Amino acid sequence: MDKEDIVIRNNYKGYLEEITNRYLTVFVLTAMVIVLLFAASDLLIRHNINAFYTRLFPLSVAVFIAIFQIFTKNKYKRLKYKLYNLLIISCLVMMYAKYLVYIQNEGQAYSVMGIVVVIFLIALELKVSLLHSIIIFFSPLLAMVIILLTIVDLPTSKMVNFTNLFPMTILGFICNRVQNKLRFKLFQSNYWLNHEKIIAKELYEESLSMNEYLEEKNFEIETQNQAIEKANEELQSISRTKDKFFSIISHDLKTPFNAMIGFTNLLSKHYEDYTPEEKKKYIAILDKSANNTYKLLNNLLEWAQAQTDSDQLKLESTNLFLLVNDVFDLLRQTAKTKKLNLINQVDKHLIITADINKLKTVIRNLTTNAIKFSYPEGLISINSNIKQTNDVNKYVQISVIDTGIGISPDRQKKLFDITQKVTTLGTHDEIGTGLGLILCDEFVRRHQGEIWVESKIDKGSTFTFTLPHYYEMN
Q: What is the rounded distance in angstroms from the CA atom of residue 451 to the CA atom of residue 369?
């Protein structure tokens, strides 16, 4: 017998004890009722006090078990199981004892039918080992045979009746072993079925855990892939930005330097050959080129600094109206040469919190572009508005408006993309690189704002940007 069989048999014993204890009260009360009926029959019908006495032992056992069950509830299960088997054996002994009592009275019933019924009830209910079953079924019968052969002189007619007990006892014993075997096989099958269920449940739980683990890993991989894709996009953007940066340096910065070197070379070698008017013209061109180159260099330096700076802003509170005036003061002479009017329509009481240098760069670049692309005697204005997205969130909207040449829709889409080449000559043939608008977009996004343009050809343009959260009123 292997270890698993031992475990099954031990569990089977526990199962038998559990089943017996579960229905113990019903079984014991049923046995008491049957024994009491027998006792009543002995006293009231057969009037045989000796037969009545044979009922007292199983009745006492039944009463004791019932009282014991009431006081102990679910305790002492193994003891109760043994007491129940004792009750079954006492019932069998009772029937044999009753037979011995009645065979002494020739005129009274001495049928073995009661014994046969009890034998088969015991065969169906008795749950013991093979050895115990042999002892229970055959020991009382053997004792009774010995008594009848040595003590009681049994008439031939009664001997024939008595011998009917032998095949009934053997058949009852066989039935008992068959039902025990079947009961054990059923338990064994259920045991293995439950065992397989447990294994299946464990496998299922393991598969669930594995699926969760795989889902987590898939999520991690997907997250990593998204991070890689984002990093690739950022790298591509950096690469495009780098290419644009070097393009500006190699072309847009190189060109004005070539022009200045050319004119300075001509003036240094042939200065005496030119008339005063020609000299004045060349010097003006040099001055214009130097100023444009300076502006370009300044934007390049600011843009390069923006790429290396962290996202932290140096926030300070300032009056937006006065800040716009400061920018206008720097550009007023340039605007005057084109007879342009600069109008500050910002609310005089509006206080904003922003990185002042970056905000000035945004307004300066937008105003410079407005000057560059406005017709002479035109109008350039800056205004502010408080906008509200819901009951709580408000933001400042700042607009730079000009009455210049306007921007076509296809060019509007490219204005804030550094990878796109968008250059247009101003109304006085001013040259630009578009880097100023890239700086504006960068600095506005740093403030968690947005920038956009609305424009119509020959009607002018309106560049608008927002500053969320950063404002208060005096």
A: 15
Indicate the DSSP class of residue 390. Answer: S
CA distances from 241 to 11, 256, 303, 305 (A): 77, 22, 11, 14
Residue 47, by phi and psi: left (phi above 0), alpha (psi -120 to 50) or beta? left
pLDDT digits (tens, 9 = 90+) for 259-292: 677 778 777 777 777 788 877 877 877 776 777 6
Cα–Cα distance, 393 to 188 (Å, whole number): 72
- For the stretch 350-375, pLDDT in tens is 888 888 888 988 998 899 888 888 88
CA distances from 337 to 118, 372, 432 (A): 130, 11, 18
**3-state DSSP assignment of residue 99:** helix
Instruction: Please check whether residue 43 is in contact with residue 80, taking contact to mean a CB–CB distance below 8 angstroms.
Output: no
* CATH class of residue range 309-473: alpha beta
Give dist(CA 72, CA 338) in Å, integer.
112
Amino acid at 243: D
Sorted by where each begins, the domain ranges of the chain are 3-202, 309-473
Q: Name the nearest CA neighbour of 165 among 234, 235, 127, 116.
A: 116
Type of residue numbered 425: L
Q: Please, are residues 331 and 324 in contact by the beta-carbon 8 Å criterion?
A: no
Measured between alpha carbons, how far apart are the two ends of the chain, in Å?
97
Total-model pTM: 0.46
